[in-house]
Structures are given as structure tokens and as C-alpha cells.
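Our preliminary data section would be incomplete without showing what the modeling component actually yields. Below, a chain of 383 amino acids is followed by its predicted structure, encoded as C-alpha cells that our downstream tools consume directly.
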Amino acid sequence: MAGITDKCSVTGIGETEYSRNSGRSVAALQMEASLKAIADAGLQPSDIDGVIPYFNMEVVAEEFITNLGIEDLRYSAITPLGGASAVSAIQAAVSAIVAGVANHVLLPIGRNGSSGERIGGRVQAMPQFRVLGEFEMPSGNIAPPQLYAHMARRHMEMYGSTSRQLAEIAVAERANAILNNNAVMQKPMTIEDHQNSRMISDPLRLFDCCLESDGAAAVIISNSDQAKDLKKKPIYIMGVAEGHPDSPSNITQRPDLTTLGTAKAAPRAFGMAGIDRKDIDVAEIYDCFTYIVMCQLEDLGFCKKGEGGDFISNGRIALDGELPINTHGGLLSQSHIVGMNHVCELVKQLRGEGGKAQVANAEIGLVTGFGDLGDGSVAIMRN
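Predicted structure:
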């Protein structure tokens, strides 16, 4: 992926309303978000020549051809990395564009995660969870909160991080969501609210866990040479990478439960971008659980391993802090659209379209994905 810096750009973004019950099909949601992204870019559906559908295969490439009127789809793929899929799809799109295969690649994700099938059922159907299915699910280790609770507890035992520190993440994101008209959660939250929420899987409480919600989001990645003539100023992709953890199919068998694939992806992404962590103005960090945010901040290099608890304390990650994160409310308080809403939010911030949650003078930003049992993806962008 050497030499990709600024050769591709985000040119369009689109989102549906996020809710608990959309009353619509997943296909309808994804088509709405896709059409909004295409219009946002100032393109026509016939200009789209690549599509990377969400890997669960509820809506496949052929349905985008039929419903959007795509005339010549030259590239399609999937990136089956769970919550890392959205940012990994950016890497796949960039690869196709730099190789000359496509010019405008559509990345749509949508689901009825609240009104449809819940995550417990979806996880058990994924082939990458077969090892868990054979050896851990029979003893009750089934749902994501249970799987990631091991990681959080290990971090606490090794480094002294606390539940109150995780609460800082939940409270900061809720405050951002309240500024966002398209966020499911609108009720203020305090540290004590978090601490009094019921235990789900020790040490993870209810407010440590992301939302299950309905909706869709889509992004257009374009050749930067063509992006210059489009409707809005392009947001340039400086670097993008993915990484996979050791023992990727089983958390409990890893030599280090506290290190994610992000630790492998981050040096590559920052190396491509040619910048350091201090240059990041805003970060949209995948937040299926509060602990995963803290762990990624360490693996991204914003602080050393074990120092994440202190790093996120005292308002550092708040909207007016040193490193504002998840300015839209994240998966914890806006909506769980598998992180594509994070990509949309970063683009808004770098365009200056963040509304009440706009970070002042945001020029360079970062977005991450985290999926399955530890896959990590990182993209760095600039305006």
C-alpha cells in the first residue's frame, strides 16, 4: 500500500435515521443511505463502478446494480472483519482505485440490529467463531460482552484500570450524542449513572455496552483526480491499514489479551500518512464496549500499554479536550452501524459540518474499526 497517500478521497456520505425500529427492510435502508451518499458527492448512480457490500450478505452487489441503476460495475468485494469491516473496506476501495480498476466505490452498511436478529444469533452463525462454538460456547461463553469481559478484567488486573475510568468514555460520548439530532440516546449520563447501571458481564456494565439499533450509512471513495471536480471538497485518505491479533479465533488463548490487531495496523497507517499522533485533531474510535476504546487508544500509540485509564480521564477525550473522540455519540450512544457512522462523522468533522459537536480547526482525523475477536483497522484523513 506504499504510495497511496492522497490518491483517493471520500467524496460522499449518506445516513438514514437511526432508530430502535426502522419498520423497513435492510435493503431499503442501504439504498437510501447509498443514494444520499451519491447525491452528496454530486454523482449519478451510473458513475458508481465499484461496491463493497457489508459482509453479512443480506444485500449483495447485484441488488445495488438493480436498485441504483449502476450501468457497469467493474469491482465488488467484501471485507469480513466484523466491526473492522467499514474501515477495511476503505483499504479495499483504495487498492482498487489505485490499481485502476474503479473510480468511484460505494461502501454501504445497514442493518436492523434492534428490530431484527440480535448480535448473539449473528455471532454464532459466523465461520470465524467456529473455535469458540466448539470449545467455549458450551460452557456459556456466548455473547460479545462475555467474550470481551475477559480482556477488560485482564487489563484491570495487570494495569489497575477501573470501571470509573471506563465510565469517562460512556459519559463523554453521551454528551456528544445529545448534541446530535440523529442519535438514539438523548438522556444525559453521569459517572454515577454508569456505575449504578446493572452488571452485564463483570466488569462490563450496561452502559459499557453499545446499542443495538436500526439504520444504514454509506460512503463514496473516489479517485482524487476526479474528486477535485465534484460537489464538495474532497477529504483525502492519507493512510489506511488493517491488522489481525495473535490467535485471531480465540481471545483466551492469546499471549496478551490486552493487545488488538490495531497494534499492527496503526504503525502502517501512520507510516503511510507521514504524521505522528500529536497531529490528530479528532478521532472516531470503534466503541462496541468502553474497554475497547481504551485498548485501541493504547494500541494506536496515543499512550503506552497500561496507561489508557489515565489517558481518558479528566476530560481529555471530551469535545473540548486534547483528543476529542466519537463526536457523534459513537456506537454507545448514537447507533451501531458497524462503524460506518464513524467514517461519516469523521468526514463531517473534516468538512466543518459537525454542527454543535464540531471540533474547532479539525484538519486531520482518524477513524478505527474493531471486529470479530480483535481485528483492527485504521484510516487517517485530512481536509
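The chain has one domain: 8-116+210-382. Residues 248 and 373 are 6 Å apart (CA to CA). Preliminary results of this kind motivate Aim 1 of the renewal.
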